[in-house]
Amino acid sequence: MADPGTYVDEIRRIISFALEIPPERLADTTPFDDLGMTSRQRIQLLSRVEVTYGVSVDIDELDRLVDIRGVAEVISEAVAAQRSGG
User: Fold this and answer.
1) How confident is the model at residue 76 (pLDDT cuts 50, 70, 90)?
2) Which residues contact 48 (CB under 8 A, 6 or more apart)?
């Protein structure tokens, strides 16, 4: 599995743009709830990162998308699964 840290900066950029928040305000573990992110925005985020990284993530993983680090871990796992053919 790729290091989730590989994806952190791009995910931070995506979230910063979507929520119109300066990237420096987004720590890896800042809860999205604290930023005012709605569940609909989390679904949109999931869709955006799926397209960005060319992967498919099960909607059941949505509960793990609570901060930048969580999104990076989910994407890292999806990329690894895709590379292994799973």
Assistant:
1) very high
2) 14, 18
Return the SS3 of 31. Answer: coil
CA 66 to mean position of chain CA atoms:
9
CA 2 remoteness from chain centre: 14
For residue 41, what are the contacts with CB-CB under 8 A and spacing of at least 6? Answer: 18, 19, 32
* Residue 14 and residue 48 in contact, taking contact as beta carbons nearer than 8 Å: yes
Residue 60: exposed, middle, or buried by beta-carbon count in 10 A (0-12, 13-18, 19+)? Answer: exposed
* pLDDT, tens digit (0-9, with 9 covering 90-100), for 22-69: 999 899 999 999 999 998 999 999 999 999 999 999 989 989 999 999
Q: What is the DSSP letter of 1?
A: -
